[in-house]
Amino acid sequence: MDFKTLNANLSLHAGDRKISGTVNYTFDVMSSIDTIRIDAKNMNFSDVKINNKSVEFKKSATELKLFKGYKKGKNTLSFEYEATPKQTLYFIGEGHGLEIWTQGQGKYTSHWLPSFDDVNEKLVFGLSISYLKDFTVLSNGILKNNEDINQVEKRWDYQMEKPMSSYLVMLAIGKYEKQTNVSKSGNNLEMYLSRSDASKFEYTYKNTKQIFDFLETEIGVKYPWEIYRQVAVKDFLYGGMENTTSTIFSRDYVVDEIGFNDRTYINVNSHELAHQWFGDLITAESGKHHWLQEGFATYYALLAEKELFGEDHFNWEMYEIAERLQQASKKDTIPLLNEKASSLTFYQKGAWALHVLRENVGAKNFNKAVKNYLEKYSFKNVNTDDFLKEINKVSKYDTEKYKAIWLEKSGFEVKEALGILQKNKFITHYLETLALAEMPFENKKQKFEDILNSNDYYPVKEEVLFQIQAVDFAEKKALIELAMKSSDVKVRQAVAKTLNKFPEEFLPQFETFLDDKSYVTNEIALNVLWSQFPKDRIKYLDKSRNWEGMNDKNLRILWLTMALATKEFEPENKVKFYDELLDYTSINYESVVRQNAITNLLYVNPGDTNVLRTLVNPLTHHKWQFSKFARDKIRELIKKDTFRLFFSELLPELADNEKVILNRLLSEN
């Protein structure tokens, strides 16, 4: 049986978190079959027809099963369905702030759309979605049409031209602003942000066109789809997701000019775009070969960064990855070519495996093999041997030995990786500087001065500052002042990080960190100054009064915490400050804001029952990181009888799902 197309007319119901619609399939029956199975988690079906005739069906908690009505050759299947998904389709916020988005990677699309969990079953998808007209609706493929249904609703018709696996189907609905660009090859690049973030387009999407143009050239195969769009959403589960033609990514990467110096979307941007070839155009046939998607996407993202930031940056990234892999290899014994491998292995070791291969066969041969591999298996499924066969066609490199060492063996080949890295002069110089760690300060002082005066890439200068951290201030003052003259935000940030104690006469210099174009540096400096110079706290609070910081409101929440902890600062406004901090724990904010606020409130007033209550709602949050934070905090608190009693007495007031988890936590001890 060969399924060809899936077309669906869908309606979203935000009030009760439901989705409903009509689905139409076309498929060919190639030989005699007993049952047609469609993956569908906890769905209700009606009006099921094959070839326009009503048929009987059975449904389980995971499938729709069909037994009769089809014939050899071409067939059609249609049905209506309804679902209230517990995962994969998320309704975030309410009213004008509502966003609806999907995350189907793995085998999860069948929670909201009757489809196929098997990645080897590829279809051409077309989705028509009805929703309120003042929202923007995004899906895969070309927007063929959008038109008003009535005074309040509009229908958006999206159509793919080529087949893809079901896990790559997406929806994103919200109040978005849009900007567009065109690639060198003529592809339309659509970029979306929430209307409240409209001022942040420039730095969030910085270098997007350059990344697209580079990857298309480097990969050697034209971008395989009709359009490319990206949208940032609230409380996304991961950094990003490479849905075909339409990447969803986390609002954590939405930044302004200053935030760009602390966190950028560039790596995730490049990674998800690379997946449009590696994962979307060709898809690994099973989890065992997952590195063919994540390793390639990670590596090509690093190559894109090399194009933007240079060889030294690229080699530093590869060095840091190598260090993480070396550390992890002490406990992580699952090799790359195994479906149970860790994310670190699939992504970072996968990237290193490709770097080793590229270094050994040569960039030209590597690129030729990749091009042949993509063209040969376009819109199909692949395994590792398919790729290595293309390497064998362009090089005599021993891929069997390579496969045994890099793909089938656990651990990390430090010696080979180091040999490749040391071809780069900066890495050699960094390692030489690292080797000075045990040398007395006086013996390396001049060398450190030379480094800080040089044009060395920042990690070498950062290492110098780490090595002098414990040196008496008077002895290292000249080096600190030299480092502070740097125009590199990272070098100055390293000074702020490592200079925890200094004499008062140095205060004017240290205060300049409060004006650096880095929210991270500002936060470090404000913490140090507030802690070390209590008599000047009001001055620092006045200066930082209107700071917001990153999307987690790191500076605003820090300011409120300090304002509350500074007894003499505006006592008449303490209640207002506390209420604002407490408000940031509510469901009106993203989990990063809520977690930050809860953490600070537990520091300010750990016994406040209003604060303790804020730990309960996150227990059922869809973002596992936030849920884990709440569980861990409650576990820590209930070791004390007073807190255990509070949470026990709270149980009857809670919703059933919250009650179940809290009860489980209370029963652990």
TrEMBL record:
Peptidase M1 membrane alanine aminopeptidase domain span: 203-399
Record CDD domains: M1_APN_like (cd09603)
SUPFAM superfamilies, alphabetized: ARM repeat (SSF48371), Leukotriene A4 hydrolase N-terminal domain (SSF63737), Metalloproteases ('zincins'), catalytic domain (SSF55486)
Keywords annotated in UniProt: Aminopeptidase, Hydrolase, Metal-binding, Metalloprotease, Protease, Zinc
UniProt catalytic activity: Release of an N-terminal amino acid, Xaa-|-Yaa- from a peptide, amide or arylamide. Xaa is preferably Ala, but may be most amino acids including Pro (slow action). When a terminal hydrophobic residue is followed by a prolyl residue, the two may be released as an intact Xaa-Pro dipeptide
Reported cofactor(s): Zn(2+)
Highest taxon listed in the record's lineage: Bacteria
Single GO MF annotation: aminopeptidase activity
InterPro entries from the UniProt entry: Aminopeptidase_N-like_N, Aminopeptidase_N-like_N_sf, ARM-type_fold, Peptidase_M1, Peptidase_M1_aminopeptidases, Peptidase_M1_dom, Peptidase_M4/M1_CTD_sf
Enzyme class (EC, first level): hydrolase
Pfam family, one: Peptidase_M1_N
E.C. no: 3.4.11.2
Residue ranges annotated for the Aminopeptidase N-like N-terminal domain, each copy included: 10-168
Family: Belongs to the peptidase M1 family.
Name of protein: Aminopeptidase N
